[in-house]
Structures are given as structure tokens and as C-alpha cells.
Amino acid sequence: MGGMAGSWIERADRVLMPTYGRRPVTFVRGAGCRLWDDAGKRYLDLAAGIGCCCLGHGDARLAAAIGEQAARLIQVSNLYYSEPMVAVAEGLCTHSFGERVFFCNSGAEANEGAIKLARKRSRDQFGPGRFRVLGFRQSFHGRTLATLSATGQAKVWKGFEPLVEGFDFADYGDLASVEQALTDAHCAILVEPIQGEGGIVVPPAGFLAGLRRLCDERDLTLIFDCVQCGMGRTGKLFAHQHEGVRPDVMTVAKGLGGGVPIGAIVATEAAGTVLTPGSHASTFGGNPLVCAAARVVLDALTEGGVIANAAARSTQFFAGLAAIQGRVAGMEAVRGRGLMIGVALDAPVAPILDRLRAAGVIALAAGERVLRLLPPLVISAAEVEEGLAAIEQALRQR
Ligand SMILES: *Cc1c(COP(=O)(O)O)cnc(C)c1O
């Protein structure tokens, strides 16, 4: 990758905005849970492009569907119908509480639309003034102005004030705090069924059901942000299905396209008929290309045994991590569900991630001190063992 002056990484850093603090690795190829960099080094991927590549890399059915659809039809806009979009919408509704779907391109955009939906629903029914959305501290909902304002972490607000008006925060997992925070000006509660970026936090049993009850009592729209915990990640297609609680609206993205950018708002009939022509739109949203990918993902998850594998590998991961916790100092807690796993450490996680990467294992952080694992849902038992051994080694070197 020569050519212009300077190393490849120097060239890249000259033209890309300095938004990410990228690690000095350039991936060129993947297969299953393996990645290869431009020097030919092989890695075990426990990050899946931040939980997106649920079928792993290089999945043959996914690649074929994308290739065939690309040759047939990529984009027509939402001024017309297209077949893959309807198939994915039907699939999402068949396998969830949903009755109506709106497609967009990312998680933030799905949450942005869900917030608009909740505001308009309340306004249509109750008139102006009832527009506030109650969210939670340590949440994460995206980087657009409305979704960063809805995010309960000051670090994402810094420099972008004034924030969008109308967001308040309660303590995650604490129903009393929610009751205290709700006012007559609220129209919705926005919550991750399991907090992701905030540190992989599973709320106490009954919390989501309690939110459902409060929303029913006060005519609030209950929005579940399933962008990270959806699409089989937790061992069910959607995390709230573990609790048997139904929202009015859920947002999905990350795993939905298996790595291809697609987001969706899934809603009940009552909530899903609020956004009418002229009130919301997306040029690319749900185009034939990305929906061809999402159709393969949905089929694999609902019929292909992928979620059963995720549940089995989860049991193996949690048992292995508990054993490591007994042998190695510095692990404060192991949290999560399915293959959405957080290991809370007593020190910063960044050096652990560097050590893992040097040893050929890619993992993630959630905040400063949580090691986060979001492997492809197709990970094998042998790969889990390999990952566990590398994690133990990296923690021992501290
Ligand atoms: C990643 C994430 C988002 C934002 O998704 P983008 O596709 O990056 O816009 C929103 N909510 C949750 C819970 C997420 O994990």
C-alpha cells in the first residue's frame, strides 16, 4: 500500500478526521471468526465490527445474496415498493411484537425516528407540551444531536451544547427513580433492555415489566433500544423476550444486516401508524441491497440454529470467565447475557486490549474499565476456549 509519501498509517491519518483513535492495524480479509491484517497476521475476532457481523466474516450465503442483489437492483428510493424490504419487515414482525416497520441506515437514525414518533404520537393524542423523553444514566443511543442528547453520559455532550431540549434521566434498574423523574410533560421512556456502551449492565428482573406498567398507566410510549442487544446477541432474537415484556417501539441496527448498514424502527400498529407521508423519510432506508443482506441474517437466526449456538457458547464463556475470576486478580464482575459479555476490571481496560491484540485477539471496551466481548454468533467451542485462554494470559500479565 505504498504510493504517496509516508507510511500507510500516516497517509490514512492525514486524510481521515481524527474522530476515532484507531489502533494501528489494517484488516484486509475475514472468514468466520478470523480476521487477517495487511501483514498476514491472523486474529480471533471477539468484536464482530462492534456486534454487527453476527454471521461472522465471509458468510457464503450472505455474500451470494449481496452479490446477486447488487447485480439485480441496488436502490430505488422509498417512492416505490421493493421485494427485499417487505420480506425483512414481515420477518421482523413475525418474530417480534411488531406490526409496522420503518427502515433507516443506522442505530442513531432509528432512535432519532423513534423519538420523533413518540413526540408526534403524544401531540396527535394530547396536544402540545407533552414532549419529554425519560432515559437513563449511563445509556447510549447514538451521536446525532437528538440521540446524544438522549444519551445519559456527559462525555458525549461535551462541546455540542446546547443539547436538544426534552431529555431527562433516571437510574438504570431503579423503578423508584423512574417514578420520581416522570412528569406530565413526558411522552416516552427510552431504554436499552441491556445497557451496552455503559458497561454491559443487565437490569434486575422485573425492571422492564415495571416500565411497561408505568407507560400503560400514563399513556407513554415505551421504546426499547435493541440496537446492540437485538438480533440474537443475547441468546433470544430480542433481549426483552427473556422477560416477556413488549414495548410499543423497538429500534434495531448493528446485527440486522450482518455488517451491512441498515437500521429499523419496529412498532405496534398503534405506534407504527403515527409517522405519515411528509413527517419522516430516508433516501436509502431499507434499499434492496441492504435488505437482501438482512433477509439472510433473519433466516439464519430464526431457522439456522445460530441463536442456539450463541446460547451454548454463552454458557461456555460465562463458565470459563468465572473460572478465570477465581484464578486471576483484578476481575470485579462478569456481566451480560448470551454473547453480550462484559468483564468489569479494577483498572483501565486499554492495556488489556493492546495485549490481546498483540496475541492475535480482537476485543472491545465499554467505558474505561469494562472488557466487552461481542463475538460473531457463529463462534465455535474451540474458538471460545482460545479466546478464554488469551484473556486469562492478558489479565495475568498486569
Ligand atoms: C451502537 C448503538 C447505537 C448507535 O448506533 P449507530 O449505528 O452507531 O448509529 C444506539 N444504541 C445502542 C444501544 C448502540 O449500541
Description of the molecule:
The model has no long low-confidence stretch (mean pLDDT 97). The strands form 3 sheets. This protein has a 7-stranded mixed beta sheet, sandwiched between helices. It has a 4-stranded mixed beta sheet with strand order 1-2-3-13. With 398 residues, the chain is of the alpha/beta class. The two termini are 35 Å apart. The site of pyridoxal-5'-phosphate has 15 residues, from helix 5. Pyridoxal-5'-phosphate binds next to helix 5.
**Major sheet description:** 7 strands, mixed
**DSSP strand (E) fraction?**
15-25%
Structural class by secondary-structure content: alpha/beta
Distance between the termini: 35 Å
- Please give the CATH architecture of the largest domain: 3-Layer(aba) Sandwich
The residue-averaged pLDDT reads 97
Q: Give the overall shape.
A: globular
Helices and strands in order:
Layout: H1 8-15, E1 27-31, E2 34-37, E3 42-45, H2 48-51, H3 60-72, H4 83-94, E4 100-104, H5 107-126, E5 132-136, H6 145-150, H7 154-157, E6 167-170, H8 175-181, E7 186-191, H9 207-218, E8 221-225, E9 249-252, E10 263-267, H10 288-303, H11 306-327, E11 331-337, E12 340-345, H12 350-358, E13 361-362, E14 364-366, E15 370-373, H13 381-396
Parallel strand pairs: 3-13, 5-6, 5-7, 7-8, 8-9
Antiparallel strand pairs: 1-2, 2-3, 4-10, 9-10, 11-12, 12-15, 14-15
Helix pairs in contact: 3-10, 4-10, 11-13, 12-13
